[in-house]
Amino acid sequence: MSEEPSSGLRLKKKLKLAVGKSRSSKNFDRSTGDSVEKAVRKGKLRPAIDNVKRHRVYGGENSDTKDTSLTDVSKSKRKSLFRRRHDEEVSEMPSVLPSKTFNRSFKKQEYAVRSSKVLYEKRKSRGEKDHYVECLRKSYSKNTKDSIKTLNYTEKKVSKVFYEKRKSRGEKDHNVEYIRKTNTKNTKDSIKSLDSTEKKSWGVSPSDPAKKRDSKKRGENGDSELLIDQPKRRKLTILRNPYDLSNKRLDDGTITDENVRQEKSKTVQKDKMSKNAEFRAIQPSKSIISFVEENLLGRRRMIEIERAGYNTDLTSPLDNIPFSKSEERERIEENIFRNKLTFFAAAKVSSSFPPPDVPEIAFAGRSNVGKSSLLNALTRQWGVVRTSDKPGLTQTINFFNLGSKLSLVDLPGYGFAYAKEEVKDAWEELVKEYVSTRVGLRRVCLLVDTKWGMKPRDQELIDLMERSQTKYQVVLTKTDTVFPMDVARRAMQIEERLTRNKSIVQPLMMVSSKSGAGIRSLRSVLATIARFAKV
Ligand SMILES: Nc1nc2c(ncn2[C@@H]2O[C@H](COP(=O)(O)OP(=O)(O)OP(=O)(O)O)[C@@H](O)[C@H]2O)c(=O)[nH]1
Ligand SMILES: [Mg+2]
């Protein structure tokens, strides 16, 4: 026999393929060509159920095993096949397709409804009543009425029973009490509101839409008592007067006290700045600068004074001859100022002025400018004239004799002083009277603080002296408090200001009673008066 399969076998194979039992079928073992049942029986394959079970129990553990058995393949295939069939079923299913019988019955029903509707409308047009509809309506209304009635009845009955029970026990029904209270409160409120509206008449008319809305709301809630209008709460309004600073916020950029103050201080500062700038721009003359440097005027360092040969251990060291010994220190160049300074008269009024026997030199100026101190410095007799750091110490016109040929007069200061306004006014009047009327007054030394310069009251006195043709000389005091350049600037400023004045005596003097700078120069100027004075 030949090894080729016979024609009958080939046909059988073909038939098997046609009905789906080929070698690729799931029940066929490829390695041997046996069926699955046979392979299982031989022990080559595990039964499919076992495999499934293991997958269920050790799903996670067996997932990484490479052993993909035939049963696994068949399972996935089964799943995909099922999915395909299901999809096909879904796609083939009609959306809504009623059967023929259902369609027929539906059409019949529709026809019946339509015909009944037509009939009902025909009857209605004829004025006839549809008995069926009427019957339905009657029965419905009767039923509802009955049900409401029964409900009310049972409610009443139950509440009545409860109420009577409580009453018998002597208890109060809280609901009843609450309703009673609210009723009385509302009525009281409404009466009050009516009274207040009558009295105050807030201008809310009964046709006020807000009021209407309010009453409507209350009506919806079902509180018939609340329908009586409650007093409408008055809206508090704050009057925003633009000039009333009390209503203003501080940070709203509007005018407030604080803002006004700040603005004022700013303008004052601006003025100050401009004045300072103006002062710095002053160019002093060469003569003034040289005078300042020669007399070591202005704020100087001790080392500078020592280098110049002055003994800094002495009071007002610059009022000494440089490199001098103690005997020489006591010697003053101007003989007149070596005389003893003696107080002889004090006047509060013009009538008490002493007789003008000797020529007089008066020292005028604002309070605390250093008048009394200068008298002491000129005569080098410390403590004869009382001084104080408190403005207003000298309150009378004090007359001092410097020998028999000259009198020095210490005047009370004007401007700021620790004294009553009336008293200060009286001093000023006395000073004005003295400088304008005093016979024998040869010179008024008008003292001006170098730091602050001339003030309006100084100008007033100058004007007065100009009118009365009293000779006056401006003396800058306390020069040791400012820089030398500023001393020169101040001197220049005042000189420029008073150039047109006739009664002024030049040059302008600059001194410091503390350091002694410029004192000798002033002495020599004043000594000339005594020399040529004729009473
Ligand atoms: N640094 C300095 N201080 C001075 C100078 N002269 C006076 N003083 C001080 O200024 C203050 C006032 O001095 P007074 O001589 O009393 O001034 P006054 O002008 O007589 O004052 P009234 O009598 O109140 O008008 C005192 O504390 C003095 O020590 C000076 O040249 N330099
Ligand atoms: Mg004084």
Automatic annotation (TrEMBL):
The keyword ATP-binding does not apply. This is EngB-type G domain-containing protein. Belongs to the TRAFAC class TrmE-Era-EngA-EngB-Septin-like GTPase superfamily. EngB GTPase family. One of its GO terms (molecular function) is metal ion binding. It comes from Cucumis sativus. Gene3D superfamilies: P-loop containing nucleotide triphosphate hydrolases. Its cofactor is Mg(2+). Keywords: GTP-binding, Magnesium, Metal-binding, Nucleotide-binding. Residues 26-40, 169-201, 209-221 have a biased composition (Basic and acidic residues). PANTHER family: EXPRESSED PROTEIN (PTHR47560:SF1). It holds the Pfam family MMR_HSR1. Residues 1-95, 169-229 are annotated as: Disordered. The keyword GTP-binding applies. Residues 357-532 form the EngB-type G domain.
